[in-house]
Amino acid sequence: MKPTGTDPRILSLAAEVAKSPEQNVPVILLKLKEIINNTPVGSSELKKIKQDIYCYDLIQYCLLVLGQDCSRIQGGWTTISQLTQILSHCCVGLDPGEDAEEFYKELLPSAAENFLILERRLQTCFINAAKGEEKDEILHFFQIVTDSLFWLLGGHVQLIQNVLQSDHFLHLLQTDNVQIGSIVMTLLQNILQINSGDLLRIEGKTLHSILDEVIFKILSTPSPVIRSTSTKLLLLMAESHQEILILLRLSACYKGLRNLLNKQETGTEFSQELTQLISLLSPQIYQEVEDQKLHQAACLIQACWKGFQTRKRIKKLPSAVIALQRSFRSKRTKTQLKLNRQKEEEHLRLQLQLQRQRAMRLSRELRLSMLEIVHPGQLEKYNREMEEKSALIIQKYWRGYRERKKFYQQRPSLMEYKAAVTLQRAVLKFLAKCRKRKKQLAPWQRLQELTDARRVELKQQVDDYIRRHSGSQISGVASRELHAQAQEQLQHYFMGRTLEERAQQHREALMAQISTNIEQLMKAPSLKEAEGKEPELFLSRSRPVAAKAKQAHLTTLKHIQAPWWKKLGEEPGDEIDVPKDELSIELGTLFIGGTKPP
Prior knowledge:
Elements: H1 8-19, H2 25-29, H3 31-37, H4 44-55, H5 58-66, H6 77-91, H7 100-128, H8 132-155, H9 159-164, H10 167-173, H11 178-194, H12 204-220, H13 224-240, H14 242-250, H15 257-262, H16 271-281, H17 283-373, H18 379-445, H19 452-468, H20 476-523, H21 542-560, H22 580-587
Helix pairs in contact: 5-6, 6-8, 7-8, 7-10, 8-11, 11-13, 12-13, 13-14, 13-16, 14-17
């Protein structure tokens, strides 16, 4: 979108560029220099002109011209050097508006790269030039392009990293020519003075290459100008970044650098900078730098920790204030309640005192009224009766107090007496069971010995029985067959008895289940009185059995929870005797069916 209120000079220039042939475009673009120079520096009018130039793509035309071959451009290097000045001045202080991303990410890096390419071409032309005048002219153009690049980098610092990482810049830095090398080293020094932080953001390989080239120029270049610039540049790098100083001090690539610098000539223009650089590379200075670095790291850690603690306290401050307010309000409420309670107690005490005073006054008035009614002759008798009644009341209260005091004093002994009685009862019951068991086993333990006459009598009875029931004589085969038949019948009897026992157990279980179901059904409410899910409780045949099991289980628990002295003398096989009232209290809620509670 073209801006409104465009300068007519920019409009006519853009129209002329659009209509003119390609070879005349560079000369036409030179008119921008006159327009920029005639506008006051820093004014809003200049910013508007730069914005118009960008909106009508005149800056893009300048970039396209810079990318062309110099021999095809009218005016040659003079036109190109002036176009670099125009391009750098137009890009610095320009507000691209909506096209900011394209301007900062594409146009500016492309312009910086074109400037470096132009410097490479000028370097080649300078080396190939034969005449001295021609070299001076090319060197002048090289200086103009370098100044334009520095102006562009000063306005857009983010381009410094792109320039330092460029291969074209590294090739320019590695030149052996004294004049070009001096200009490039000065450019690098000025760049690092603007923003030295970008030096650490470039790749390590590129950084090593730059350091190697600077150190090479210090040690090997005969020109004092380049050596001075290189020394100042290396000193600036070491002082600005401790990482570079540590690299120069510890890296194996730069081992012996301090000794080589000590061998350099003294008394030159850059001897002071050289002395400072040597002192920086000394172990003492390095130790100071390390200590300073550790101090800064400690300060940073302390600052982070203190900041964290402060933020934590600030974050907890609202909750602490809320807790303090809650505690204060709670304490105030408790104090208020205590004061109210004291006031109520004081008021009650006063009320009781007033009631006692009223009662005493009424009693005295009643006594006076009675004295007025009673005959004077019976006054003594009345006083005696009142004294006797008062004495009886006093004696009654005193005896009650005395008996209660005795009871509380004798209460531990009474509890001990009851416990002893319970223990004696349990022990006596246990001893009675032991005596009963001994009586049951006594006939088997005390068999009477047989006498000779009794033995003869018993033998005579056995002989008579055998004589009366003499057995028939059978053969051995018949005896074995009879024995086999007896064994078979015995086996059949045992098998049948096992099945009969299982069937009997099953019948007993069914009878128990039936009796339980009948009992539950008898106690169940009628269908009219049933509510909720009570009828569903009788759909499953296992629920009554489960209820019976729960009842038995809880009965056992009731017995287990009983005191130990109640279970003295009981045997494992004895039945548990639990009162039915306690069972109804504990197990009342477990019945599946039953009468409906009132």
